[in-house]
Amino acid sequence: MTDPESTTDAPRTSNVRPASPAEAADVRAMHAANRSAWDEAAERYEGWYDEAVELIRGGGSNLFPVEHDLIGDLHGRCRRAIHLQCAGGRDTLSLWNLGADEVIGVDISTRMLDLAARLTAATGAPARWVEADVLDAPHELDGTADLVYTGRGAIIWLQDLDAWAAVLRRLLSPMGRLVIFDGHPAEWLFDADEDGRWVATDYDYFGGPEASKGWAPEYIDRLSLAEDDQSWKFARAWTLGEIVTALLGAGLRLERVAEHPVDWWAGHRDIRPEDRGRVPLSFSVVATRGE
User: Fold this and answer.
1) Whole-prediction pTM
2) Structural domains of the chain ordered from first start
C-alpha cells in the first residue's frame, strides 16, 4: 500500500515514484527513511496531545468499535499488552483503559515516543516505550505478551513481512493472542466519482514498494515543513494473501481472518452512504502463538 495521496486518479508527481531496485533491496535503509518521515509527521500528533490526555484520563479509547470487539475486555486476563508501531501512544494507552495491567509501545520514531512519554506522565499509565525498528523488538520481551496488537496503517510501512511475522510470534506468551486491524490493500483499487459512486483507480495491487513525499490531508494533514523538503518514505503494497502467508509461515495459528467495510483513515468520506458497505476497506486477524 502506498501513501494515500498516490492511490487516486490524479497524475503522479515527482514526489511519488516506484522504489528503485537498489532501494527495494535494502529493507533497513527504507525503514530508516520512514523513521525520518514519521519524526516529521509527529508534528501533527503533537497537535492532538491535549485531546489525547483528556481521552485517556477519562478512561476512553481511541480504538474503533471493531477493534474493541476483537480485543475484548482485558481486565484480569492481560498482564502485558505490546503495541507494535505505536506512534504517539494514544492507541497503546487505550489498551490500558481496556484493562491491560501494563502496556509497552514499540516504535521507530524518537519524536513519536517522546510524545508517548509525555502522555504517560500526564495520565499516570503503567507504560513503557521502546525505540526500535519493529523487526528489532527487544528479545527481553519474548514470550511475555498476553496481547500483541498492531493497528491501523502499520503494515504498509514494513518491507519484510516474514521477519515481522516472526517477531509477532516470539513476543506472544504461550496463551497470548495476536490482534491485527489494518487497512485492506484492495481499498486503493477504488475511489469516488463526482456522484459519490465507487470507480476503479489506476492503482497497482501488485506494485511493490513506492517512495513518496507529503501526506494525504485525511491521513496526516499538512505539516509546517514544505512537501519538497520532507523526507522520502517507503510504503509497500502487501496483498492480503502475502500477509496471511507470512503469519502462517511464522507458525502462528490463525483463529479468524475477516474483512470489513470500515473506513480506517476517513479517506472515503465522499462515498454515498448506500454504497459504503460494498468494498472491503479494512481487515482483521486474530491468532495465537501455535506450537
Assistant:
1) 0.93
2) 4-288 (3.40.50.150)
